[in-house]
Amino acid sequence: MEKMSGIAGVYQRENCRELVGNILDKIKHRGPDDISIISLGKTALGQTCFAGEKIGRGQDVFAVVDGSIFNEEIDGDAAGDKIVNAYIKYGKGFTKELEGSFAFILADGDRVIAARDPVGLKPLYYAEDEGSVMYFASEIKALKDISEDIKIFPPGYYYHSDEGFVKYYKKPVLGSNGDISVEEAISKVKELLVNAAEKRYEDNKKLGLYLSGGIDSSVVAAAASEIADDIDTFSVGVHTSEDLPNARLVARHLGTNHHEYIYKPEEMLKVLPEVIYHLESFDMYLVRSSIANYLVSKIARESGVDLVFCGEGGDELFGGYHYLKDFEPEEIENELLKLTFNGHNNGFQRVDRMTAAHSLDGHMPIMDNEVAEFAYSLPVEWKIYEEDGKKIEKWILRKAFEDDLPEEIVWRKKAKFFKGAGSADILKQFADQKISDEEFEREKQIDDDFVLRSKEELYYYRIFKEYFPHKSILETIGRTATVKK
Length: 485
Hints:
Helix content is 37%, strand content 21%. By secondary structure, it is α+β, with helices and mostly antiparallel strands.
């Protein structure tokens, strides 16, 4: 299994080895121990990595990878070797055979292939230049001094230097599994989640879990407890946070080594510029929740953890948003697909960037391929379940771990991470004091079709613009959905 890496590639440019090194210097936090670069004529690939990692190679084919490949039928221990061997075995369309979360760049002679996993759990960006020159990197900051027109590498696509961008993944049809009973489905959800945790666990690493006391992080903790004995859990918030007592309850129940950190408003404001720099976004809701993610990653790293699990993905796959209760079943299915496949520059981006900022190898077991495909197939009525006139979100996920967690946790109502951690009101009040009504009205329209939603978001945008001044980068910004219907 591969750890997190920062990857970069340059195609069709003379003397590109040094340039790849400069790109990687800006994302060294994604793998602080070493930088590996290989150059092949007008192509160079590189990765910033942890000790012991290497560029994948075989039969004059080379690959750099950020992520994990779980296919047992593909030879190789490291993700880079698996990518190379999959390419040799299946040919240029090999990406559709891969199971895992990944972004990679592969060179075969004068050809280059790059790809990203179906939902974009791992990041990748690109920029184009005259003469078919292409630049690739894991984060925007790595390319911002090279190009003013940086684009998101679309999830579920591969790029081939002979063909351009090719879509390899088709979005699933939801609710297609009509041959399974609800009891079998409940059991299967648990089985798959435990398997997902086991795939990502390495017994030579210290495992940590981000624990809010909500159902998503709690089921991941319960699943991990089935396969690992010595687990550290981490929870953060302000002193009034509702997450902290709930996380304590889960930690006691599962017998984890629990760590708790209470932060003050001034600490939130102090880390805010660094959060926005690493996050590469100014979306108000995303920044709010990223502060808590940033701080919990910091204490996890300081505790000696190098592998962390979090609960991201439960809302998207199992219907965790309250507003969905007002939708008809078909509308819910469409909304869940939209939420899942828009997560690459929203919640999934937050998890990736905040763990990477502290050189942590972060994983989202709920977004495992097998878990996701099974969740897609289930009837929406098992996700948002009606009982005694009330609709219960994520019902089947709760039922799957009903016997493994305290009852009050299993049936706890969802709280946004930034609300549970207690950061929302503090940040809003600070921005309202800093920015006048007149300033907001004057500055809220930042592009023809991009309007900032609040003074708070304007405050974040001002910080963002100092790091990322090019207007084209606005196209990479995901927007958290706020419309209820």
